[in-house]
Design brief:
Distance between the termini: 8 Å
Radius of gyration: 17 Å
Helix content: 40-55%
Strand order of the largest sheet: 3-2-1-4-5-6
Shape: globular
Oligomer: single chain
């Protein structure tokens, strides 16, 4: 049983714990539509490692957006907040997995590149915010998830050693960096990262399409 092997679990949110990636595709569509542009073909891959502020800065500079970084972030927030409050749901089995972790006195945290208010909104709306002991954001460590710093910081906050901590991620470079840092890793399938699924399965200690599989 995985619960006997871990003292903590760290979740990525978008695409791993919550089913939100379609929302961000719609946000990108609308953002560029307002500027009479199509989504650049390289855009998703270029920003997927970045926290909000870095992604906004990149978007402004790469595509000549006149608004400030702060205004771009606010626009993204405004476009997504209703969806996060009323429409974005948890991945299958996510709440049940949290409940099992609590039964086994396992610390629970999340490590994400998303914005704090969006994370709180969606977790509160789905009735699970109270389960989390710690939260950690990529901008706290100034490195994206191709480096393990955000996972290491979250584990430190929970007072859990990497070798006794499960990291759940849907992105390949997150699995790779967490694995190299000594974490136990679980790859979660998401359509947005389907092209990397076979590589994720090869690298991760566990690979699932639902948290029910872990339980």
């Amino acid at each position: 049983m995985i619960f006997d092997d871990i003292d903590g679990v760290i979740f990525d949110l978008d695409g791993t714990f919550i089913d939100s990636m379609n929302v961000w595709h719609e946000v990108d569509l609308e953002f560029f539509r307002r500027r009479n542009m199509d989504i650049p073909p390289e855009y998703k891959d270029n920003i997927k490692k970045m926290p909000f502020d870095a992604a906004a800065s990149y978007t402004k500079e790469a595509y000549g957006i006149k608004e400030s970084v702060e205004e771009i972030i606010q626009e993204w927030h405004d476009l997504s907040i209703d969806a996060y409050k009323y429409h974005v749901k948890l991945k299958a089995g996510a709440k049940e997995f949290l409940e099992e972790c609590k039964k086994h006195d396992i610390k629970i945290g999340y490590a994400t590149a998303s914005e704090d208010s969006l994370c709180k909104t969606v977790l509160q709306a789905n009735g699970v915010f109270c389960y989390f002991d710690e939260k950690t954001y990529v901008n706290e460590v100034s490195k994206d998830k191709s480096e393990p710093d955000v996972y290491l910081l979250c584990a430190k906050k929970m007072n859990v050693k990497p070798g006794r901590c499960l990291v759940c991620e849907d992105i390949l470079f997150g699995i790779q960096s967490a694995k190299k840092a000594g974490f136990i890793t679980c790859g979660m399938y998401d359509d947005a990262s389907a092209k990397d699924w076979e590589k994720i399965r090869q690298i991760a200690d566990y690979s699932v399409r639902s948290f029910k599989e872990i339980i």
